[in-house]
Amino acid sequence: MNGWGALLWFLVGLTILAGLSRWMSGLVQGVGWLLFGDERAAFLLTYVVFFPGIVLHELSHWVMAWLLGMRPRQLSLWPRVYGRRVEMGSVRMRSGGPLRDSLTGLAPLLVGSLILLLVSYRIFDAAVLRQAWSRDGFGAAWGAFWAAFRVPNAWLWAYLVFAVSNAMLPSPADRRPLLPLLLYVVIVGLAFYLIGWLPRLVLPADVMVQVAGALRTLSTAFAFTIALDVLIALPLLAVQLLFLLFRPGDSRLMR
């Protein structure tokens, strides 16, 4: 797989993870609503389920802001409800400009990806998953996925992966400073391309090989996480199905 192919699979995996994160959050909240019939209780259940990931998310913001000299303060790890919006945690800090604000906003994704990478490869040996896929396809990869859970405390590690992966994506507030920075990078890249400087900025072949290898490794960690998310979603969907079958007239099912 060349560098562009590795980048494509990485972006596909990240996009699927982002979609799953929103879906899983809604799924947990939906189960909470069905079980307790109270919106705040549903939010609290979501907070408890994703608590390790929420703590890592906010601490990543705080540490990055501190490293960049942005004077972080008022670290909150308790959920707050503002009308229809829920804030699972927050860090207050002064703005450091588009670049530093963007790096602070991306910190949970960077740290979360590192955690997924370490647990997937060091604990579950996700390299075997990639080898099985390359050699024998989906069936062998699925078998390797199940075999990975023979390690000690497998489900505890799996829960950590689940919680971190579903809380590491940037929130709307985190993404806000990324927009002008992304636009700036696109404009500069286009300008360099038009004046003929971009070819000189292309990475050497040996560096591209290393980058492609790193992207493939991270993509495999993402694939393992996606499979785990789908596996955990099944019992949550089963709970909702049971309510549909045995309590069809329950008004909570209409939300």
Can you give a write-up of this model?
The chain has 255 residues and is mostly helical. It has one domain. Helices cover 72% and strands 5% of the residues. The protein contains 10 helices and 4 strands, in the order αααββββααααααα. The protein has a two-stranded antiparallel sheet with strand order 1-4. Strands 2-3 form a two-stranded antiparallel ribbon. A hairpin with a 2-residue loop joins β2 and β3. It is globular. The termini are far apart.
Could you give a short account of the major beta sheet? 2 strands, antiparallel
Strand content: 5-15%
Percent helix range: over 70%
User: Structural class from helices and strands?
Assistant: mainly alpha
N→C terminal distance: 45 Å
Task: List segments where confidence is low: pLDDT < 50 over at least 5 consecutive residues.
Answer: none
CA-based gyration radius: 21 Å
Count of helical regions: 10
- Output the helix-strand order: HHHEEEEHHHHHHH
Can you list the strand order of the major beta sheet? 1-4
Indicate the mean pLDDT: 83
